[in-house]
Amino acid sequence: MHQLSTAFVLGYHGCDRSVADALLEGEAFKPSKNQHDWLGHGIYFWEANPRRGLEFAEELRTRYRSRPGAIETPAVVGAVIDLGFCLDLTSSSGISAVRATYDDLRLYLEKTGADLPVNHLGNDLLLRDLDCAVINHLHKVRKESNLQRFDSVRGVFLEGSRIYADSGFFEKTHIQICVCDPACIKGVFRVPPEHLDPT
Asked: CA-CA to 175 of 20 to 30 Å: which in 43, 104, 132, 168?
């Protein structure tokens, strides 16, 4: 929740080849509005990790092959992103803000009789309904309070299997960025093939 770190980062967006081509031609990114989006609603990027962006597109192709609009040819496109006023979940202030918002959301839902959403973390699906609801609630509270809106949200995620027995490192660990304000995306670029080499 600060601007202490470098403002510009390279982010990578996994998608279908047709979407990547359209983005490179100047089409706007479409924000994700799933109820399970880890960092709330917005445009998602893998920070400094083009290979993981491509792997994600490959996973989506396998998982959702029969859905309309499913990925046919996995691809990844790069973007220069200005994080701006960032809800940074690698910082103490960012974590504190989200923790306090969870308490506020829980009390609000108790008063209205609604159930608190639940994260579904089994089978490597990582459907984070609760986390999404908390962060979206934080955006709503700030807007209603006339506080500065977040331009982006950034978080570290431990994902996948341990890379060896008792390891604290996981094979799909990554930093993810959710861009809330599309104006933060300053440019789009084609990812060189050598940046996708896993070796």
From this structure: 104
